[in-house]
């Protein structure tokens, strides 16, 4: 993720000029992610270095290739939205057609996607086929999230989800502190789906409450003038 951020920052001016550049780079990145695995360095030092770029070791979880593709596809989505008029996609009949296509797409490919994503090595170092699947899924996902926001974006639940997204870093840290400490005591001791669901709701509730308190304290400290 760090390398991807640095590389995108270096190429920012070029990426801003044309969304086609983003698409070309993300396609190359997706291809290299799996292709480069056939070139495993012979020395430990080179293995360590290459692990950051294409995952030549088992502990390389999110190497630059193919994972650079995903922030780039976000950039490309934004550029396409700005360049083309997509309001026509909000037509009622077209919305229903897109939903049907999405359901058919998921029904015909879900077993493949689960097979790849449930195998950590194939997931972390997937090739261009799974990348294309993810792009298609994200396209549908982004569309329906946008439509949901347009229709019921002011409901309490959706506003809460958006609040979580706005403060996702704080929420992420808090929930991992909770999970990391609790898991050492109850690891694999809960098998009931009911208790698992209850635990999930509990963790989210506590994390949200702590995040709210943290934000209130931080805001209060900012508003308090320095003595």
Q: Number of helix segments?
A: 12
Order of helices and strands: HHHHHHHHHHHH
**Structural class category:** mainly alpha
Number of strands: 0
Give structural notes.
The chain is mostly helical and 227 residues long. Helix content is 79%, strand content 0%. The chain contains twelve helices and no strands. The chain has helices spanning 2-10, 12-17, 19-35, 44-54, 64-67, 69-83, 92-117, 120-124, 128-152, 156-166, 168-186, 193-223. Helix 7 (92-117) crosses helix 9 and helix 11 crosses helix 12. The longest helix is centred in the C-terminal third of the chain and has 31 residues, at 193-223. It is globular, with a radius of gyration of 21 Å. The two termini are 40 Å apart. The mean pLDDT is 88.
Topology:
Elements: H1 2-10, H2 12-17, H3 19-35, H4 44-54, H5 64-67, H6 69-83, H7 92-117, H8 120-124, H9 128-152, H10 156-166, H11 168-186, H12 193-223
What would you say about this model in short?
With 227 residues, this protein is mainly alpha-helical. The chain is built from twelve helices and no strands.
Jot down its keywords.
mainly alpha; 79% helix; 227 residues; 0% strand; globular
């Amino acid at each position: 993720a760090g390398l991807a951020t640095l590389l995108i920052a270096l190429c920012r001016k070029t990426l801003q000029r044309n969304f086609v550049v983003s698409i070309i780079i993300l396609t190359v990145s997706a291809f290299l992610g799996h292709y480069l695995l056939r070139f495993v360095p012979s020395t430990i030092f080179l293995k360590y270095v290459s692990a950051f770029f294409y995952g030549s070791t088992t502990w390389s979880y999110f190497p630059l290739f193919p994972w650079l593709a995903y922030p780039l596809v976000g950039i490309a989505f934004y550029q396409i939205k700005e360049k083309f008029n997509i309001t026509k996609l909000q037509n009622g009949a077209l919305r229903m057609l897109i939903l049907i296509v999405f359901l058919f797409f998921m029904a015909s490919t879900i077993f493949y996607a689960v097979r790849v994503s449930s195998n950590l090595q194939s997931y972390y170092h997937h090739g261009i086929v799974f990348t294309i699947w993810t792009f298609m899924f994200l396209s549908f996902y982004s569309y329906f999230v946008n439509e949901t926001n347009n229709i019921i974006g002011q409901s309490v639940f959706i506003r809460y989800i958006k609040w979580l997204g706005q403060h996702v870093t704080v929420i992420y840290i808090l929930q991992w502190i909770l999970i990391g400490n609790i898991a050492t005591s109850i690891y694999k001791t809960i098998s009931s789906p009911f208790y698992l669901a209850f635990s999930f709701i509990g963790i989210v509730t506590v994390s949200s409450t702590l995040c709210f308190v943290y934000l209130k304290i931080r805001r209060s400290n900012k508003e308090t003038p320095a003595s």
